[in-house]
Hints:
It is a single chain. A five-stranded mixed β-sheet has the order 3-2-1-4-7, with helices on both faces. A five-stranded mixed β-sheet has the order 10-9-8-13-14, with helices on both faces. The mean pLDDT is 93. α3 crosses α10, α5 packs antiparallel against α7 and α7 (230-254) packs across α8. The chain has helices at residues 41-55, 91-99, 108-119, 177-180, 183-199, 218-225, 230-254, 264-283, 286-289, 303-314, and strands at residues 3-8, 12-21, 24-34, 61-66, 70-71, 76-77, 102-107, 128-131, 139-143, 146-148, 169-170, 173-174, 258-261, 293-296. The protein is globular. It has ten helices and 14 strands. By secondary structure, the chain is α/β, with parallel strands linked by helices.
Amino acid sequence: MILVGFDIGGTKCAVSVGREVEGRPxxxxxRAIPTDRSVSAYEMLDRxxxxxxxxxxxxxxxxxxxxxxxDSKRGIIQSPPNLPGWDxxxxxxxxxxxxxxxxxxxxDANACAVAEWKYGAGAGxxxxxxxxxGTGLGAGLILNGKLYVGASDMAGECGHIRLAPEGPVGFxxxxxxxxxxxxGGLAQLGQRMAKERLQKGGRVSFxxxxxxxxxxxxxxxxxxxxxxxxxxxxxxxLCGEMLGKGLSILIDILNPERIVLGSIFQRCEHLLxxxxxxxxxxxxxxxxxxxxxxxxxxxxxxxxxYAALAVAAMGGE
Length: 317
C-alpha cells in the first residue's frame, strides 16, 4: 500500500511517499517547499499535490500533519497561528477529491505521537504519552491502544498547565509547563539568571553582557552546560525539576506505561534526567511511577517524515 504524507508547517511544507514493510515505515521519496504566505492555502495545497504526483502515480491513503487548531473528525484546518490565512480549510475533502482515496488529518503533536507509537520508542505500548519538548511543549496521547484527541481535538495541551505562580511564559501563561520546558522557556530561564547575575557584577558563562541577553538560547546554554559551567547546569537542573513536576501530574492522571520525550530531551537527557527523576520520586504515586518508563524519542530528526505517513497508515483507527 502506497502512503503519502503531507506535513504542513509555517516555514516549509513537505510531501513524503512511503509504505509499511513488516510493520516498519519505508520512506521512498520526499520533497519539501517553502511555505509561501503570499498565496492562498489552496494554492499551497496544489503545489504539494503536484509534488506528490511527480513522485508517484498510485496513492492508497493520505495522512496530513498540521499545527492546530484543527478539527480532525471533519478534516478542517482552523486558523493555526503559524499559518495566517488558513481559515477553515477543508483539507481532507480537497485531497480526497483530487486523488480519489481516503485522507486523514491530525495535529502535528498527535501525528508525532502516532509515529513514535507505531515505529519508535512507544512501540508495543497500550498507554503512552509523547511530549514534543521543542520550540513549544505539545503532547499526543495513546490511551488503551488508540489515539485520544478529546471532545474538540484539544487533548494533550499539557503545555498550558500552570506549574508555578510565576515563571517564564509559554502558551500565553507565566509559570506554565511550556514556559519551563521548551526551547523558548529554557532561553527565558537563562535570560532571567543572566540578567540578575550581570546586574550584580557577576559573570555568566553563556552571556557576556546585558546587551547580549536576547541572544541566549537553549542551545547556547546547553553548550556551556556540557563544558561543566555551573550556571548553565543550574538552568537545566531547574528545567529538569519542572519537567519532573509536570510529568508527575501526567503519571498520576493517565497511568501510562511509557512517556516519550522528543527534541531537547533527546539531546540533553544527561542534563535533565537526574533532577527530573528526583521530583518524580517525590511527587508521583508509587504504583503509577513504577510501571512508567521515561525515554527519549527514537525517530529523531526524521520524525516529520514518519508522522504524516503514520497518520495515513493508522487510517480511521
